[in-house]
Design goal:
Elements (H helix, E strand, L loop, with lengths): L4 E10 L4 E3 H5 L6 H8 L3 E3 L7 H16 L8 E5 L10 H8 L7 E4 L5 H14 L5 E9 L9 H4 L4 E11 L4 E8 L7 E2 L11 H5 L6 E2 L1 H23 L8 E4 L4 H11 L10 H4 L6 H11 L8 E8 L3 E8 L1
Parallel strand pairs: 4-5, 4-6, 11-12
Antiparallel strand pairs: 1-7, 2-3, 6-7, 8-13, 9-10, 12-13
Helix pairs in contact: 3-4, 8-9
The chain binds acetyl coenzyme *A.
Length: 327
């Protein structure tokens, strides 16, 4: 697609040590392990320490990705961060991660594409490497949902969690991102959002009293769109790469909900052992779910270097997308 090929040189992830189980949630709100597992597949999730910020989680994942890539941090020439639970509304969490890595001077910016953040970041990084603009790009996907969840709202608080995944992308002999496709539909932005805190509904005592600074979601609408849009994106990248889904060694879908993943698995008649699922242990960490799953699967040797992997995500915006990568 450009002058240079681009590959994912290294993967890393960090999940906080503290585990919050469904049984613990039962003591905090009117919910049950049975309801959460049957509707979502989530059994437990990780919660960051009070003082840990999204940039702290991201920097920990980033250090592992840099080490795995076999480069020095100083070789990086751009940092892209995908997050919707960053340290501040602004400045960019990417700048905070840059500071924590001691890489002062190189450009750093955030992408706001919710759960599709990894695919958006991958697509951007690939284009910037292919064009020759940058050589080694750090893409960090990090979320700390626990800080901003309404723990009284059982509809939402049982779903989301904390964690970070990172990849280093760089020039390579062979192409590592075989295809990628991005989509968005802003007319659905009110179905999954945090209404308060921006210029539309600035922070005020009234806004906080009405709970509009918390994440709001129309679960059924999100579900319906997720099960049709992720296949649309996957079909687009399969056609771009000239591949059939059977030729992929593994598929990693956004880890929001097991029922969404199962619906897609049935649609393509995928063998279960090709589809990575870790949402039972980590819940929905939005932009971070796919890079966490990739890095963890490499660590456990479930996915190996050279494998062909399809990834697809759907999230707030609405945004959705997919990619095919050679690990
Ligand atoms: N525990 C117990 N009961 C609950 C809980 C809970 N944690 N949460 C909601 N309920 C209740 C509701 O209050 C409602 O009760 P009511 O009927 O008395 O009003 C009832 O359960 C709703 O039940 P269902 O209609 O069976 O819920 P549904 O099957 O739609 O499941 C869910 C809800 C899991 C949110 C589903 O809509 C879904 O998976 N949506 C996709 C949303 C998603 O995954 N979002 C993640 C963010 S977006 C993304 O990452 C893609």
């Amino acid at each position: 697609m450009g002058i240079y090929n681009c590959s994912l040189l290294g993967y890393g992830y960090y999940v906080p040590e503290t585990i919050l189980t469904n049984a613990q949630l039962e003591t905090m709100m009117d919910t049950s392990d049975e309801w959460i597992v049957s509707r979502t597949g989530i059994k437990e999730r990780r919660i960051a320490a009070r003082e840990q910020t999204a940039s702290d989680l991201g920097a920990l994942a980033a250090r592992k990705a840099i080490a795995a890539a076999g480069i020095q941090a100083a070789d990086l020439d751009l940092i892209i961060t995908a997050t919707i639970t960053g340290d501040y509304i602004w400045p960019a969490t990417a700048c905070r991660i840059q500071d924590k890595l001691g890489l002062h001077g190189i450009p750093a910016f955030d992408i706001s594409a919710a759960c599709t953040g990894f695919i958006y970041g991958l697509n951007m990084a690939r284009g910037l490497i292919a064009s020759g603009s940058y050589k080694n790009i750090l893409l960090v996907c990090t979320e700390k949902f626990s800080a901003g969840l309404n723990w009284q709202d059982r509809n939402v608080s049982v779903l989301f969690a904390d964690g970070a995944g990172a990849v280093v992308l760089g020039r390579s002999a062979d192409e590592g991102v075989l295809a990628s496709a991005l989509f968005a539909d802003g007319s659905k932005s009110d179905l999954l959002l945090q209404p308060g805190g921006g210029s539309c509904k600035p922070i005020s005592a009234e806004l906080v009293a009405s709970g509009q600074h918390y994440l709001q979601m129309n679960g059924k609408e999100v579900y319906m769109h997720a099960v049709s849009k992720m296949p649309q994106a996957l079909d687009a990248v399969l056609s771009q790469a000239g591949l059939a889904v059977e030729q992929l060694d593994h598929l990693v879908f956004h880890q929001a909900n097991l029922r969404i993943i199962q619906a897609i698995v049935q649609r393509y008649r995928l063998p279960a052992d090709k589809v990575v699922v870790n949402l039972d242990r980590y819940g929905n960490t939005s932009a971070a779910t796919i890079p966490i799953a990739l890095a963890e699967s490499l660590e456990s040797r479930r996915i190996k270097r050279g494998d062909l992997v399809g990834v697809a995500a759907f999230g707030g915006g609405f945004t959705w997308g997919a990619a095919i990568i050679r690990i």
